[in-house]
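thought: fold this chain, then report.
action: predict
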Amino acid sequence: MIYAMADIHGQYDKYIAMLQKINFSDNDVLFVLGDVIDRGSQGMAILKDMMMRTNVYPILGNHEYMAITAIPWLMQEITEETVEKIDPEMMQGLIEWMNVGGSSSISEFRGLSRDEQEAILDYLSEFELYDVVEAGGKEYVLVHAGLDNFDEERSLSNYDLSELLFHRPDYETRYYKNKYLVTGHTPTRVAYAAEQGVLLEELSSEEYQDLIFKKNNHIAIDCGSSFGGKLGCICLDTMEEYYV
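observation:
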């Protein structure tokens, strides 16, 4: 079976519980649509597990992208000389990463051995920007955030990082006639609130629908796990949904 999940955000226990719930085996395939790290305290532990599984395919999220730009500096020995050579853009990137939950990942990363740190950085550099897969007689485009400035005739390789990692899709527009776009990044409670014609801020936490959202060939699978919601996973062969 082919599965997809996204936005685990350092919640190792939920990640392992989900693998157990779907009975994930060597005969299955799992696509992880970015934002494995940050906010939760065990993003590096999840990465270490993923990198040992040849049937887990990671897709780059905005949180991994921010980590990749900052980690090389974190791996340096802090001396007066290295501090003097800090690039302002690097410092700004580090601050931005910390502001979106990177502090937990930085702390965990610094607790790793040098070999583990290098292995993590190498693994992150291998993350794909998107993937396309066939399952259950359907074709799926898998990407972290969406396809900003979408054009059905535009090749996926022509989208830039910001269009794939940061921008939210328009669920009211059917992008592909014969394909499904599977994304994370945007908590599905936002989409469900929009369906009700209200802002998310107008709903109480008891009214949130932290479930996989499907509309107009969109399949949104960030179920708000890092915001008190659920970790969602979908089987692309059967459309069966799983939650922990």
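thought: worth noting. The first strand starts at residue 2 and ends at 5.
final: tokens above.
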